[in-house]
Amino acid sequence: MRILALDTATEACSVALLSGDELIGRSVEGGLSHAQQVLGMVEAILAEAQVSLSMLDGIAASIGPGAFTGVRITVAVAQGLAFGADLPVVPVTTLEALAFQVVRRGGAHALACLDARMGEVYWECFAADSRRGLAANNPASVGPPESVVLPAAGVYRGIGRGFAAYPARFALPGLTVEPADGHALPNAREFAALGAMRFGLGEGLDPADLSPLYVRDKVALTEAERAAKPVL
Questions:
Q1: Domain ranges of the chain
Q2: Which one of 3, 58, 95, 202 has the minimum C-beta count within 10 Å?
Q3: Which helix (H) or strand (E) holds 192?
Q4: Which CATH code of 3.10.180.10, 2.160.10.10, 3.40.50.10800, 3.30.420.40 fits the domain covering 2-93+187-209?
């Protein structure tokens, strides 16, 4: 199975191609905008693998949560490529891809957490699942770090840049966060691996049905909200 994966929802722009057991990936943080980088990265990876779009089995697309513009870029690019090559798509969230980094290293439970700005984080708890890679313990959520709660059972490993953004505000019993994991971002290699599992389960979609995951309906605080917000 050949799966192309795309993610532009966070500070990093990443693309990966999974072909059988072989994985080619690129991830860039900074520099040009994601919109300017992502198609060139796709072309470079396909050229390196000597694979055309028509030879793919599908595209795994990041649907967020994350930066509103970045999420829309991933969805639009995935749809454009999929329509052009008559391919199915499968959605994978940024929080799933983060948590799967923990699962691939043998972790049984993960708390994925991304900086959502405005003093808030995107977060979701997961358990390892042999069929789909991950099973969610709660819906993807957004709120202040103090609103994050762990399920009663299990020891959780935290991952994601939300922990680095608010290091003093995570003191949850049963949670451990390695320093490197506290700075982690999603990467297309995990989108590709999860996408392959889900295509294998028949979860591919028509590209027209791919839609962003928005768990917040605002992108900035009002002046009154900024004035009332305590200085951290």
A1: 2-93+187-209, 94-183
A2: 202
A3: helix 188-200
A4: 3.30.420.40
Which residues, in sequence order, are CB contacts of 122 under 8 Å at separation 6+? 65, 66, 94, 95, 113, 114, 116, 140, 141, 142, 162, 215, 216
CATH of domain 94-183: 3.30.420.40
pTM given for the model? 0.91
**8 Å CB contact between 161 and 183:** yes
pLDDT average, residue stretch 123-146: 96
- pLDDT tens by residue, 208-228: 999 999 997 644 333 333 344
Average pLDDT over residues 58-64: 98
Tokens of 132: 């789909």
